[in-house]
Specification:
The chain is an alpha/beta fold. Helix content is 49%, strand content 15%. The chain contains eleven helices and six strands. It has a six-stranded mixed sheet. The longest helix has 17 residues, at 2-18. It is globular. The chain starts with a helix and ends with a helix.
Length: 227
């Protein structure tokens, strides 16, 4: 805990003064473009992975990057989605899964979660993903972890579409959904392609939408010795 407290002191002494103008602007409101839904896993840092600044991402985190289907039951994720879309006006929603996900391990073997009843119930929202993978192979085991992780992203995107504010935004073209998979060990980010039903490299997935920006970023990386 000591390093966390020291980090606050460093933020207040060094980081905040450098970004004082930005924080002064944010003190009176926010207008993020992206709702970023990802896992609560401590190894995932959305701002680090996306290299974004405060105010650019509206972030929701939970075990398994789950989006419960819309219902009349009010929950934190449902309320946050509604607020991000209807009040803040985000135009993009990302559901980001990750490798070595403990929640997906639990979804594959729920019988191991009897001592964690709330976790077990929560991961019921991932059952469609596990059943899809089970249906492909006739069985389900830990060797299917990566496949379940990807399928879970796809299924949570389906759940997103059941939320009225999201459905309305998709219908009128103001909302775009994105399914991502972050590889902790390599730093790779794969993106789901609705047409091919495959996860592809981020540069390939967005070449049409953001071709010029991607090319410029890759050129800048190459000039700095990156590959």
């Amino acid at each position: 805990m000591e390093h966390v407290i020291n980090g606050v002191a460093k933020f207040q002494k060094e980081v905040f003064p450098e970004k004082k103008a930005k924080f002064s602007e944010l003190a009176s409101g926010q207008s993020p473009e992206v709702l970023f839904i990802t896992c609560a896993d401590s190894r995932i840092d959305p701002n680090l992975v996306t290299q974004t600044e405060p105010g650019e991402l509206f972030i929701c985190r939970n075990a398994g990057n789950v989006v419960p289907p819309h219902s009349n039951h009010t929950g934190g994720i449902t309320a946050s989605i509604e607020f991000a879309v209807a009040a803040l006006g985000v135009s993009h929603i990302v559901v980001c899964g990750h490798t070595d996900c403990g929640a997906m391990k639990g979804a594959i073997a729920p019988e191991n979660l009897d001592t964690l009843p709330h976790v077990k119930e929560w991961l019921g929202h991932c059952r469609a993903a596990t059943e899809v993978v089970r249906g492909r192979h006739g069985s389900l085991c830990k060797d299917h972890l990566d496949e379940v992780t990807r399928e879970n992203v796809v299924q949570q995107l389906q759940h997103l579409r059941t939320h009225p504010s999201v459905a309305s935004g998709i219908a009128n073209g103001s909302i775009t959904l994105h399914g991502w998979l972050y590889n902790i060990g390599t730093g790779d980010v794969l993106c789901y392609d609705e047409q091919s039903k495959e996860f592809t490299a981020i540069s390939e997935r967005y070449r049409v939408m953001f071709g010029d920006q991607i090319a410029a970023a890759q050129a800048a990386g190459a000039s700095c010795g990156e590959v």
